[in-house]
Amino acid sequence: MATHPYAAVVVDLAVPKSLDYAIPPDTQAEIGMRVKVPLRGRMVHGTILEFKEKPEVKNTSSIDTLLPESIPVDLLKLGLWISNYYCSPFFKVIKQLMPPSVRQGMTEKQQLFVKPLLSRPELAKLCLTKPAAQRDIIDALLQAPKGLLLTELLEKTGATKSPVTTLAKQNIVSLAPLTIDRNPLDEHDFFPTKTKILNHEQQTAYDQILSSIDSKTFQTHLLFGVTGSGKTEVYLQAIEQTLSQGRTALFLVPEIALTSQTTERLRSRFQEKVAILHHRLSAGQRRDSWHKIRSGEISLVVGPRSALFSPLQNLGLIVVDEEHDTAYKQTDEMPCYQARDVAVMRGKLCNATVILGSATPSLESYTNALAGKYHLNPLMERADNASLPSVEIVNMKLEYGKAQGFTLFSEKLLDGIKSRIASGEQTLLFLNRRGFNTSSSCEACGEAVTCPHCSITLTYHKGDNLLSCHLCGHETRPLTECPSCKAHDSFKFKGAGTEHVERALHAIFPDIRTLRLDADTTKHKGSHDKMFKQFRAGKADVLIGTQMIAKGLHFPSVTLVGILNPDLSLHIPDFRAAEHVFQLITQVAGRSGRSQLRGEVILQTTLPSHPVFLKAAALDYPAFYTEEIEARRSFQFPPFCHLVKLIFSGEDPTATEKHAQTLRSSLIQKLPSTYEINPVIPCGYAKIKNQFRFQFLIKGASTRPITDLLKTVPSPSSIKLLIDVDPLSTYF
Ligand code: ADP
Ligand code: ZN
User: Fold this and answer.
1) Where are the alpha helices (DSSP H) in 558-687?
2) What is the pLDDT of residues 587-616, one digit of tens each?
């Protein structure tokens, strides 16, 4: 290998550009290698980006240490692409590419292990001749002839380390370091499951995917399969095929905690070959998984969007399950990458097959499929002889008339729940609001209780008798006096959340058994899983939940799904509102009738003839697509253009807005006139945690001219600028 005199290094600090360092002679530096370099009088970690024959400055310092960790070259390339496309400095991208424990060079965990070197009879004989402390040690080892960790041994015997060292010196025991595997998978085994015989539709889709895998060239498939059509079985067989060719596979899910059933199916099929990456891994577990993946010991990785950066080598297949899910987009921090799109890019860089799967594909993906850019593989029927549920729209305006006022449940829904309780079947109730009431305001003067730090109203949680902010977590007791007009006990609560639904249900059916699944009831580790299992085991008649219950769950006894008030989400002023409502309804409805029992869905709305509800009730995605894509075309929204959203946040609202205005003016001057630059407006959440937020949107044929300009703008340190390329939401 040719040696190069210099290397460009990106340090792990907020330094926007790479810095040049001399490579010490006689060392084997490689691109992607982690290094320690001197910077302003201290040592910092960094990554070698490229080699150079000549440095950009004179007097370069030399790299201090070449570290054992390295980012594979293809991932580094992907990182550079992300940095460029999503307009994010590379030091921020590196943070995504490597977990902190790996970046900081955490080592493997080693513990001293004590093993007897003599046979049992020999040990027993020796025991008699030894002083008490050594005798205790030998006794303990007679019980554990294979040996013990030193810590365990000392705990068992209450001895100090010194008698063990003495025995080791006399070659009676060995005392040596052992690498401890911080394996996050629990010990209990999983029953291996067998592959299923694919039905005709599955087989056709699988054959297409298989030919891509075998060709070892990049190709993207859109597996468009209705809920329960057996997409997972197709993924599993595609993975099996990839692994059998000695290649590796990556499986992305929107959220690990909400997709435990899919994860379990992967785990039982692939056993020890799989690593499951989730948010709750310890730093040590994350470090160990990363190295096992890097070394090839692990060949299948399952995880949320961050798992996309697993250092798998020889990657043959990437699956993005529920590809439409908003969790794939990073929105709170730069780079604001869309993992689904980056997955396709990663596939391209390493000649892998990519499968995007969904019952309700994003408009972008379906458009790509229709245009032939992606291969469309439809699964239009449910697998295993199950049939799709029937969806009925109930006009809540008529129900309010019958009830002479507001009511949460239609008569039809109550009858449905009652008959399910009688027959031992189960019901799922979906509502996109947690808490008891969604707002509280003074009846006398109309003053609403808002969060002191954010610009939203507080939600009342009856169980805790607290008002809480769903953006920052601020909590306060309900007010007895209105701060504005001083009226007493004038606060009225409005809007119902999941907690309210649960109480109302118990008032109607005193013996009903309910489970509630939302952000309030799932704060603890493993709580989702526990509730899913309880529900599946029939421990409740009704499961009430927010969109957490919409994702990929399989409850064979659920035959009724009630969707309460989806109207609110339709009123969000965002070009994707209709798409999100359609996806949510289809996904929730898809939880019904997934076995031999026929499923029913009741959709309660005050807008019974809204086209989105009509198409969702007909479970007709293509019809929804045809209508929605026309709206996008006429208003020129994605996929017919690209958007870049700029969010400015700062403590001083005037200065923040002014900075946004200044940047907007300069962009108007520099960008071609075909680019549309919207006015500066406060964000939907105009204040979060005392930071005032303003935004403006740029629309154009391509993002490149916009991001090229943005890369050059300096920002005052008191104002944060978040650049969101291809944003999901244009409102919040
Ligand atoms: P999807 O992911 O498309 O919603 P699943 O993969 O969860 O659907 O499949 C729905 C049900 O059908 C599961 O219980 C699964 O075990 C079953 N299933 C899938 N494919 C087959 C098949 N070829 N033969 C029999 N049962 C199948
Ligand atoms: Zn708040």
Assistant:
1) 567-570, 577-589, 611-617, 621-634, 653-670
2) 988 888 888 788 999 999 999 999 999 999
